[in-house]
Write a sequence for this structure.
């Protein structure tokens, strides 16, 4: 075996304890619950969710500190094949924290503007992450906006359906 394969094998044995299954990875980091009875592979994820970033083994070997920091996550699929994925970076947390450290008077308005610009998928992802971080107060605020957006979407669909039935 080559030197890189040996190093990768050693790294995988140390990361085996902290690695995740592919299903758990999708649920925890992306809020995607795939309820299939078949086996899920990394190629399926590559095809279904192209926005999820994979990292090459060579990059992992060169930047081992990122895997131990949690920036790169070792994930095993149903066939027990390893792959490394980047931890998703939600920029909204940084924006909210920056706003909270600036002026106190306009914080709520600026946060609401940022949250209203997000779509329902991004809001649901933010809700899951806030809940997992035990930031309950922020979770409730984001959930209110998410619920409002879903109701607004349902009303639009209902009006469109009524218009189609009327014609």
């Amino acid at each position: 075996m080559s030197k890189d394969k040996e190093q990768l094998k050693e790294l995988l044995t140390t990361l085996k304890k902290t690695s995740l299954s592919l299903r758990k990875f999708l649920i925890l980091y992306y809020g995607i619950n795939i309820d299939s009875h078949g086996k899920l592979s990394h190629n399926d994820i590559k095809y279904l969710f192209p926005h999820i970033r994979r990292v090459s083994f060579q990059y992992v070997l060169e930047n081992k500190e990122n895997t131990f920091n949690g920036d790169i996550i070792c994930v095993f699929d149903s066939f027990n094949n390893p792959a490394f994925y980047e931890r998703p970076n939600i920029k909204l947390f940084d924006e909210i924290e920056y706003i909270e450290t600036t002026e106190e008077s306009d914080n709520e308005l600026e946060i609401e503007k940022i949250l209203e610009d997000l779509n329902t998928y991004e809001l649901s992802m933010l809700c899951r992450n806030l809940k997992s971080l035990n930031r309950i107060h922020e979770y409730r605020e984001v959930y209110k906006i998410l619920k409002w957006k879903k109701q607004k979407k349902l009303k639009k669909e209902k009006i469109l359906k009524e218009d189609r039935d009327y014609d």
The beta strands are 20-21, 54-55, 72-76, 82-86. The first strand starts at residue 20 and ends at 21. The mean pLDDT is 76. The two ends are 70 Å apart (CA to CA).
